[in-house]
Amino acid sequence: MGGGQSKAKPAPLFSEPWRQIDWGDQRRDLQFVKTYKPQTEGQQLRILLHGPAGAGKSSFINSVQSVLQGRMYRQALVDNTSHETFTKKYQTFKVQKESSDTFYPFVFNDVMGLDPHKGVLVDDVKLALRGHIKDEYRFDPKSKLSEADPFYNKSPTSNDKVHVLVCVIAADTVPVLRDEIVRKVLDIRKEATRLGIPQVAILTKIDKACPEVNQDLKNVYRIKYMKEQMEKFSAEVGIPMNCIFPVMNYHEETNLNNDTDALILSTMRNIIICGDDYINFKKNQDDCSTNYV
Ligand SMILES: Nc1nc2c(ncn2[C@@H]2O[C@H](COP(=O)(O)OP(=O)(O)OP(=O)(O)O)[C@@H](O)[C@H]2O)c(=O)[nH]1
Ligand SMILES: [Mg+2]
To answer: What superfamily in CATH does domain 44-285 come from?
Structure first.
């Protein structure tokens, strides 16, 4: 079974949750995400999701859209076969505001799965980080996007560049994460670090990894096994624990649920804070360098 836990024995619990979530009252996080505005007019916060095929990248985008729109949303196509990566094109997902024709100032991109041989090339993810890939580019697992290609963006603006890199991994695969995937994640992280881009991780499918979470999502920060999986993943790819967020994506439900929303919103709040800090840092850096010429 997922995570190799014994079905018979209940999972050991911490007496108190080790992280606080506003279960049942996520108005604070909802308000934050709904009212977020970058300091500079017209600036977009670009969030790039990467990770193995079937980890739940597209489902996370849909889940965030669902929570913000107050109804189930299925814009990013999701696949149930898990044989090979389903997302093949580079695409920007905007989130429309509920009551108008305007969009939230953050956008998502997800890339083809990271799988060896048939997944996205690390070099292409690096190009995406620097804003060089245009929308609708169809990834080729055999060759990197060339500068001569019409989908190569030669002069990316600040809005085209990525401001937060999110590694998406299914929690039930942490115990069996393949070395090739870990190496790819590390390689992409190295480039993001070189560019100063903040990085977080989302552990999806926590309902599959642990039956106690499936029974009650509020157990997520009380179950020792879940914390161990986060620590294991953190040690493997070097993302600190305070940048790792467990979520359950909407995957079989047809109605929204407060607890599912609470985890998704608190994760989004943290992603936005990381990206916004980076945008402001870059802007200050650019302002300083213009003042000195
Ligand atoms: N139980 C459960 N299933 C999930 C969760 N998130 C996603 N899924 C399911 O996992 C499968 C793959 O999800 P996708 O969102 O297509 O994964 P992806 O990372 O976009 O995959 P590729 O585009 O193929 O790289 C789908 O059947 C989803 O419904 C989750 O949190 N819990
Ligand atoms: Mg996908």
So the answer is: P-loop containing nucleotide triphosphate hydrolases (3.40.50.300)
